[in-house]
Structure prediction request, 349 residues.
Amino acid sequence: MLRYLTAGESHGRGLVAILEGMPAGVRVDLSYINAQLKRRQMGFGRGKRMQIENDKARILSGLKGGVTLGSPLTVLVENKDFSIEKLHNVLAARPGHADLAGALKYGFSDIRNVLERASARSTAATVAVGGLCRILLKVFHIEITSTVVSIGGERSHRGRIARIKQAMEAKDTVGGIFEVRAQGVPVGLGSYAQPDRRLDGRLAQALMSIPGIKAVEIGLGFGYADQFGSRVHDAIYCSPGKGFYHRTNNAGGIEGGISNGEAVVVRACMKPIATLLQPLDSVNIATRKPAQAAVERSDYCAVESAGVVAEAACALVLADLFLEKFGSDNLEDIQAAVARYRKRLKNKR
Ligand code: EPS
Prediction:
C-alpha cells in the first residue's frame, strides 16, 4: 500500500510529506520533482506570494545514492515567507473559505489558526510526493498531463486570459475547469469487487480533496445524462497488433471501476478563490456583529496550478493501484510481474 501524509502551514517553516510504500530500486531525479513544483507555481492570475516563493524539494529520508530504499521517503519544501508568528489575527470569516466552519469546529478565536493549514500552499507537498509517484509510473511509460478547459466559462486561450484580467480589474476572482489525462495506464488497475477499490472512486476522492474543487467527472461525465446508451458506450474491437481496444473513450479509460487500457481522463471544476479584494458581507467571530470579510494577499485564479496538483493527486492513486496489482517491494520484481501480465494478455488474444 502506498500512503502519504502532509504537514505544514502556509507561513510556517515549510511543508513536509512522508510517502510510504515506494518500492526499492527507483532512481529519483530531483530536478524532475522541482520542475513539477515550478509548474504548480505558474499560470496567469497567481498573486504576489508566488513571486516570493521558489519551491524546491529536499528529500530527507528513504534515498541512498539517489535510489529509493523501500523505506519511507520524507520530502521538505521550505517556505521563504516564514512569518506565521508575526501575522495579524483574522476575525471576519471569508465566505467560501474554511474560516468559519474551521474556527467553530476547533474553538479558535483567531481564524488564522484555520487558514494557515486550510491553504492551497499545502498542495506543494502533494505535488512533491506526486512527483515521486510520477517517476515510478514513468518507468512503466505512464505519463500524466493536464490542460485548462475553461476559465469563467471561456474556452479559448485569449478568452480565458481576458476573463482573468477582468477579475483582476474588478478585484474579483474566477474559477474554471481543468482536465487530467493519464496515458499508458494498463488494463486492470482498481476493482469492481469493493466500493473502496474502484479506480473512479479513488480518483474522485483524490481530486475532491484538492482545495477549491467542487465537482469531478470521469470521461463524458455529466454528458452521459443526455444520451441514449447506444450513443455513448465505447464499442470494443480487437486486432492482432493492438489487442483489445476502443475507438472512442467516453468512459474516460475506466469501466466497472477498473482501468480498461485507454487513457484515463478526469475533469474537475475549481470554484473562484474565496479571498476577495472587494469582500462580501460576513460576521466578526468575536463580536458576532456584521463585518466585511477579511482581505488577505491571494490569487485571482489558480485553475492551471490546480491542474498540476490534480496530476500529482492522480499519480498517487495510479501508483498505489499499480503497486497493488504488480507488487510493491522491489522495482525489478515489479518489472517482471508487469512483463508476465503483458504476456498473459497477449496469449489470450
Ligand atoms: C492562499 C493564499 C495565498 C496563496 C496561497 C493560497 O498565499 P498568501 O496568503 O501567502 O499570499 O498564494 O497559495 C500558495 C501559497 C501556494 O503555494 O499555492 C490561501 O489562502 O489558500
